[in-house]
Amino acid sequence: MSSQFPQAPDRTTHVQSGPTAAKIGSLTLGTPVMLAPMAGVTNPPFRQLCREFGEQAMAEVNPSGEKHERPGSYAPTGLYVCEMITSRALIERTPETMRMIEPDMGDPVRSIQLYGVAPATIAESVRLLVGNGWADHIDLNFGCPVPKVTRKGGGSALPWKHDLFADIVEAAVMAANAESDGSVPVTAKFRIGIDDDHETYRDVARLCEDAGIEALTLHARTMTQHYSGQARWNVIAELNEMTELPVFGNGDVFDADDASAMMDETGAAGVVVGRGCQGRPWLFYDLVAAAHGSRSRYKPTLSDVAEVIMRHAELSVEHFGDEHRAMREMRKHVGWYMRGFSVGGQARRDLGLVESLGDLRSKLDRLDLTQDYPDAAEGPRGRAGGEKRPHLPEFWLDSHELNSEQRAKIHEAELGISGG
User: Fold this and answer.
1) Does residue 144 have an active-site annotation?
2) How far is it, in rounded angstroms, from Cα 281 to Cα 217?
3) Residue 92, Cβ neighbours under 10 Å: how many?
């Protein structure tokens, strides 16, 4: 298969009808997949690569279809979600946050994940996103397990406090509806709970239904698990049975067969893919093809991978407007791209120190680019680690309501975090 990418599509798209479609309020996903937001990863260049691979597959399995004239309401190859932003930083319009919400211009649906701990701040940030036309879909993050956030009551610790959680989701939905007449859906992503003795997903679903949230994404692990062990897909199935909201499953989807298995086992409306696509944006070719009944899979040679890396790097330079920063950002991606190929330790170290596009091209050209795609490049990706003791504010688990001291300090949990 050619490593050339299609041109960015016109914002008039084609509808794929049939059982693969998923609905999130007024938004239709022609393919029931999402790219999970990942800090420092899912910026516009990476989202564009993933989307273009999905579009390659769609062009093969569905070359024609009914035209759909409403940009922002139909995502033919799924949702490609912006890396998570904090509500306070958005309101303050910090330069880095404004760069982060820059769209992948070819994407017909602008999807942004928002994190915050104060209902009024969340509401104001939603008004900014929707009122300025910066988002067609907003996802609220309640899944982060990072101790520096949870020890202050944020991230995956927050759903334990039912009063605060309900206030946040209600404020977000009301703000979105007020600015868009209901055309911009709000969804929520969360975990099973803090640990096996303090599960929250059932209460979260009930509170989301009451607030008008349009869909749920469950990362089927607890905060204690972080990314370790196996995701508990049976909990996704249970959640799907207990709520009428669409449920999207997240956790341990590393290839198209995993996605199909999750859908079959859980009845989920769709799948959300994070670590599985690191260094492998062509995974979305496989996911889209499989969702539409095709067995075609993208198996790049190292030469193909090198061309994807160069395109990724060029898009990054354009995005950041700074070649040195773009190369610093690319270093981690290049390491992921090289997984499974026979490259050699010194070459890997050299690629981890690239300074410019010319330097990157030169170092890639020194590799044995004739290598076929190796089996070792498949399978789980990302650091799983082990279980971790939950870090929570003092007396956090004593009640499902904030006490006065916790309410006074909860604003400290709005930090830059890494999703979940």
Assistant:
1) yes
2) 21
3) 11
Selecting among 82, 144, 208, 277, the annotated active-site residue is: 144
Give me the helices (H) in 321-379, please: 323-337, 345-351, 357-365
pLDDT digits (tens, 9 = 90+) for 180-239: 988 999 999 999 999 999 999 999 999 999 999 999 999 999 999 999 999 999 999 999
Residue 90 neighbours by CB distance under 10 Å? 25
The three-state secondary structure class of 218 is: strand
Question: Whole-prediction pTM value?
Answer: 0.92
CB hemisphere CA count around 20 (13 angstroms): 24
Which residue in the block uniquely carries the two structure tokens 């992921």?
336
Taken in order 238, 150, 116, 74, the sign of the CA dihedral is negative
Q: What is the pLDDT of residues 40-99, one digit of tens each?
A: 999 999 999 999 999 999 999 887 755 554 667 999 999 999 999 999 999 999 999 999
Q: How far apart are CA 120 and CA 186, in angstroms?
A: 16
Note every long-range contact of 229-237, with CB atoms under 8 Å and residues 24 or more positions apart, other chains counting. Answer: 229/384, 229/387, 232/192, 233/262, 233/265, 233/266, 234/265, 234/266, 235/192, 235/201, 236/262, 236/266, 236/268, 237/265, 237/266, 237/267, 237/268
Query: What stretches in the chain show pLDDT beneath 70?
Result: 1-19, 65-71, 415-420
CB contact at 8 A, 100 and 83: yes
Residue of 186, 194, 205 whose CA lies nearest to 151: 194
CB-count burial class (<10 Å; 0-12, 13-18, 19+) for 331: middle
**Within 10 Å of residue 177's Cβ, how many Cβ atoms?**
17
37-67 residues labelled b (16+ CB within 10 A) or e (exposed)? bbbebbbbbbbbbbbbbbbbbbeebbeeeee
Contacts with 106 (C-beta within 8 Å, 6 or more apart), sequence order: 8, 9, 48, 51, 52
Confirm if 173 and 209 have CB atoms less than 8 A apart.
no
